[in-house]
Write a structure and sequence with these properties.
The structure holds three protein chains of three kinds. Chain A is an alpha+beta fold. Chain A contains 16 helices and twelve strands. In chain A, the strands form five sheets. A three-stranded antiparallel beta sheet of chain A has the order 5-6-7. The relative contact order of chain A is 0.18. By secondary structure, chain B is an alpha/beta fold. In chain B, the strands form three sheets. Chain B has a five-stranded mixed beta sheet. A two-stranded parallel ribbon of chain B has the order 7-8. Chain C has 15 helices and two strands. In chain C, strands 1-2 form a two-stranded antiparallel ribbon. Helices cover about 70% and strands about 0% of the residues of chain C. In chain C, about 50% of the residues are buried. Chain C is mostly helical. The chains are: A alpha+beta, B alpha/beta, C mainly alpha. Chains in contact: A-B, A-C. The interface between A and B is large, with 47 and 41 residues.
Amino acid sequence: MTDVQQHTPSIHLSGEEPRVLPNGEREFFFDVSTSDLEVNMGPQHPATHGVMRVLLRTDGELVTGAQPHLGYLHRCAEKIGENVEWLQYLPYTDRYDYLAAMNNNLGYSLAVESLMPDLEIPRRATLLRTICAELNRIASHLIAYGTYGLDIGAFTPFFYAFREREWIQALFEKICGARLTYSFIRIGGVFNDAPPGWLKEVAAFCDVFEEKWREYYDLLVTNHIFVMRTKDIGVISAEMAYDFGLTGPMLRGSGVDFDLRRDLPYMAYKEIWDAGAFRIPVGRGAQGTLGDCWDRFDVRVQEMMESIKIIRYCLEVIEEGEVIGDVPKVIKVPAGESYVGIENPRGELGHYVHSDGGKVAVRCRVRAPSFVNLAVLEDLMPGTLLADSVAIIGSTDIVVGETDR
Amino acid sequence: MEFQAIVDRLRALEAPGIVSADEPRPANKAEKDPGRSGRPFLVIEPDKLVDFLRVCRDDERLAFEILIDLTASDPGADEPQLWILVELLSVRHRHRLALKALLPKENPTLPSATAVYRAAQWHERECMEMFGVTFEGHPDPRNILLPDDWVGHPLRKDYEFPTEYHGVSCE
Amino acid sequence: MSILAITLSAGSLLSGAAATELQGPVMGTPGAGGNFLTRLLEWLGPPQAVPTWAIALTSVLLGVAILVTMVSLIAMWSVWMERKVSGHMQCRFGPMYAGGWHGWAQTIADGVKLLLKEDLIPKGADRALFWIAPAIVLAGIFGALAALPLSYDWYFARMDLGVFTILALGSTTTIGVVMAGWASNSKWSLYGAMREAAQVIAYEIPLGISLLCPLMTLGTFSLIDASREQATLFGWDCGLGWAVFTNPFNIAAFVIFWIAALAETKRAPFDLPEAESELVAGFMTEYSGIRWSFFFMEEYAAMFLMSVVGAVFFFGGFETPLTALMRASGSDGTLLYSLVCFGTLVLKGFAGVFLMMWLRWTLPRVRIDQVMTMGYKYLTPLALLCVLLTATWEFARHLVMG
């Protein structure tokens, strides 16, 4: 082992004189010195959920320092945004957070639409967008649920989560033909109307999912070993969450009751909230300290159920009608600039778009939630055990496609 | 609070460095003004940005706890200035504020906001590598997404694409 | 090279065992006393006509051949079983194509693939240790399996201290694992090796102590005698006098034994040495091909071994009502009786293996400090308490029943 720095001898008597205790015993002082081991967690490591590298400094099992290194998946998304037409950029948005592509489409579309004051979004389009975005939120949280189980060492929940996610993907396949990168939510509305019977299938999914969700909760969230592994680990206080700019479940896990869907509503969320269709799950510190890994995980699992409620509301009020506004083939966006943030499964997905009135954006900035949420690792990981550091990375629920863009 | 109320509050607090409000306006064909859509921005002086942010964060009625985004924009190859764009969010009062600071393209330098919001740290690192903006007092000024030895600042409009990287042609 | 090492180590053990056994038949007391190798040899010809060394050599080679087949079969079946069990627990089927019926030949196909795979040795690795480590791991488990009786009259060596031999040889695999982790020149492997060492040391203690409870109930260290002891329940030969039925504290002891056995065999929730989401693959990270499969074979053989030890000392060993019925009908001593005993043991063993798999695919992994806390702070004192209570119970039983 050439990389391990050898101290010889690692344990030896220190030069100090032994202390004589009152009962006559002599107390020797050992000078125990160990050396830190620097170890690369990643870029190819199962715990980093992609190609991210965390440089860990460890003392035995104890992590004494952590430094995330990003950029292995950098695909110049923002530069591409300045070189392709408005609508052509939409497929690229699918690829930052590939687990929640609908939400990314939505964020970008809303940002561009905010520059087009004359554009009317039909109501059916808004509701279809909401249904798709919430379905995708469930799918994304299911991955978070499953992979977090994997991180902690439980395999089976992962497969159960994928079973339901498969169903959601099948629903998306029916509505837009794609299973992962949808490009379904367009500037001005959605790509096409839902096929006949699709909304009924969504309702059937909601019924089954409510049942299954209970099982998920019992299987992993309240599992004793799981709780032992995640409580009091990676505690983020509300102040720390503010300071690091955390959003989404990371912020709510710390007990901050804030959700863009309710507090700065966009699309139809104000109506849905006013109708009392959903609530905002917030970390309660139910199993340990407020803001620990368990709280963040619990918030995600609870959110799935709230999404189901939102979908049910939308299914109730949706009516026939147009699904896309009056948008030309080649979109020319009026000059202007805007920042629009929406509630993505991982936090606030913001798009800053700047148009000079042409066919191509001047600047297309993506504020990726995973990127911001990841910064907190540097502070959370030191002082934990190696296995805890894996639990902490998992609880931030990053998607590397989004951190690196 | 709405944008105008926030600006009034900031002016009442004598927040340092306020230049003007950049608000949307309709197009005016007579003056060949294409107009501007979108959201209003508050333009501030880059040197005072950190002090300004501190006021925003600490005032009770503004209470911008979270720095959502800090980025830069190059409005065009011919433009003389870079824009630094900051997005603030108040959880308590549920309002947002977008800031804009104009920096000269030659040697753009401004103080780092890391002391006020730690969230700024990684955003600033990204700005540094992508636009060549220098943030004075940044604790860890390394590249974040690009390799450490990358030449040039890719999101600048005058950026020239490299023809090779470490001997590998990319044409 | 590795095969040679296995053969040598398992062979040396066996030759020792066989040689002691051989003295009986060679000295002229033929028949029932000898192990089944010598009886096989007798069947080939009169023992007096063959020189002793030839008998010893043949029996050793034969024993090794049988053991290699046994370990391979156990591993092959268990791997297939693991994949099917996990598959069905996870709403899928597992392998379905290789071989036709439910992918029964999948493990054979995998084995062939592993044999043909390139045997990679990392650049900075300690080559000698890296080569020898899988062999040591496998040799330990071979030796332990050699001490296992397969039926009342099928055994390699009739050992009075059989359970100690099994525990002692079974835990030598740790040396191989630590060696593998060190020699790989990978930090993840080193972590895995260190965890394995810490974990095995912590759980050897409760494992051994909890086994003392049935040992006291049964009054023997020999696996064959322990089985025989459990035939009678309160003097009635019904094949159900299992240690867990005759003494309630043995149930608690079994729970402790089972937890410790899971930790010993590196199975979830104690699979920290491998911990694929933390340490990539732990001590096996740098291994590939047939060497890697040795670790796998060891894992499954150890699972089976631990289950069998548990079955023998807590759940009656060869004994079921069926064996009692056969005894009552006077068919003991026949080949069928031996086969039934063998089948009973294998079934009980694989029931334990199934339980291990069930736990693995249900529970998350515990953390290293929790593993240590559990081993030292809870299981060891509890095991000691169990011993005390079992002893009291046995004492009272002897007082009452005479």
